[in-house]
Design brief:
This protein has 16 helices and no strands. By secondary structure, the chain is mostly helical. It has 2 domains: 14-133 and 154-194, Up-down Bundle (Growth Hormone, Chain: A); 208-404, Up-down Bundle (Growth Hormone, Chain: A), CATH 1.20.1250.20. The relative contact order is 0.14.
């Protein structure tokens, strides 16, 4: 079985520690919003701080990836975890003193120093399985990682919500504790050390394929816009039924469905090529968001979310798999972090646009943004697919296992 083989390859301790190590990323946005709103009693400022942090995360991710490719995942992961802990401490201190400029600067530093566990651990799997001669396990590893990401984003808001009932400072303090107890040890124990490579001439340095990586970035941004608009939709839904806690429950339902679909992707047939997967799952994502839009009107939002959630993880896994295949091994970390940078940027746009439409059209306005983003993702996949068939310049027509 694929997952049993992954357990042998990585070791039992890798999985629980790796799952907890990414939890601070899943709690950071909500923890920051709660902390800043409590300190200033101003939702607009809290939203500005959250947006600042999201943009900084998108900008800082490729920087962390570049440094990891150059100096090794271990040293960069450890330094990033320590720096992120210090940035959270600065944000907490600024919130207690009430300095708004200091809070914005600290929020930006939290985003810039994000350890990037999710992208880098995917590179770890690629290198580990290549070194062991078990590349055929990579689809299962990427499926597991997608499910782990979704579970962390289910657990994160619940974690923050429970702690907020104790104190608005508790989520931030808990996030710092998790960084020190799991993110830092995970980087120190499991991350790859600095590569031992012979110096190469400048012209021999491998380059990232800019066009295909731009396609992947935009594809992930579209996925982020879906997430952002759905977050708005469930918030409107919870307000409409006068049950504030319903927003978290419905969004958790979305994450659980996506995680289950991600686990199932490990058993897709090997003859199902990466290019075909990308196009097929972009189409199913678009169909899923159409079901979400129509189903929320005809049935109920929770029922529509349950159906649509199954189309998310397969699409995201195809993006990770394509990025892993097209990036040179020496630049894999920066490629993954560039891909992931599209998520928070797309989410910020999705939240802004859907929030504006929801003000006038309610849930329908927010969900229309989700469907539009998914349709844009499908059009992008179609254009890339046709360009590839015409010129064969951005991804090989290869099976997941055998390569080109």
């Amino acid at each position: 079985m694929s997952y049993r083989s992954l357990l042998r390859a990585a070791g039992a301790g890798f999985f629980p520690l790796g799952l907890l190590a990414r939890l601070p990323y899943a709690t950071s946005a909500l923890s920051t919003l709660i902390l800043l709103q409590t300190s200033t009693h101003n939702y607009a400022f809290a939203g500005l701080g959250g947006a600042t942090q999201s943009i900084a995360t998108a900008l800082g991710g490729p920087l962390v990836g570049t440094l990891a490719d150059r100096h090794g995942h271990r040293v960069v992961g450890v330094v990033a975890a320590i720096a992120n802990f210090a940035a959270w401490a600065a944000l907490l201190a600024a919130s207690l003193t009430g300095g708004r400029q200091g809070m914005l600067v600290a929020a930006a530093l939290v985003g810039l120093t994000q350890p990037q566990v999710g992208p880098l651990v995917r590179v770890h799997w690629s290198r580990l399985l290549h070194a062991r001669g078990e590349r055929e396990l990579l689809p299962a590893a990427l499926s597991y990682e997608a499910s782990a990401d979704e579970l962390s984003f289910v657990a994160g808001p619940v974690f923050v919500g429970l702690l907020t009932s104790l104190s608005p400072l508790a989520p931030t303090i808990a996030t710092m504790t998790v960084i020190a107890a799991t993110t830092l040890p995970f980087a120190a124990v499991y991350a790859h050390p600095a590569p031992h490579q012979q110096p190469t001439a400048p012209q021999e340095k491998p380059r990232l394929p800019r066009r295909p990586l731009a396609v992947m970035f935009l594809a992930m941004a579209a996925m982020g816009a879906v997430f952002g608009s759905l977050q708005t939709a469930v918030t409107v839904y919870a307000d409409a039924i006068d049950e504030p806690g319903a927003a978290g429950l419905v969004y958790a339902e979305f994450g659980i469905g996506s995680a289950l679909a991600g686990v199932a992707c490990a058993w897709l047939p090997r003859q199902f090529t990466l290019r075909a997967r990308y196009l097929s799952f972009a189409a199913t994502l678009c169909a899923g968001m159409l079901v979400l839009f129509v189903g929320a009107r005809l049935l109920s939002l929770p029922a529509a979310v349950a159906a649509a959630s199954l189309t998310v993880a397969p699409y995201m896994i195809s993006l990770y798999a394509l990025t892993e295949r097209l990036a040179p091994a020496e630049r894999a970390a920066v490629a993954m972090t560039v891909l992931c940078a599209g998520g928070p940027l797309g989410a910020a746009v999705g939240q802004a646009v859907s929030g504006s439409l929801a003000q006038s059209y309610g849930i329908d306005g927010a969900l229309l943004v989700a469907f539009t983003a998914a349709a844009a993702a499908l059009l992008l996949a179609l254009s890339a697919f046709l360009a590839d068939r015409r010129r064969n310049i951005w991804i090989v027509d290869a099976t997941v296992v055998s390569g080109a």
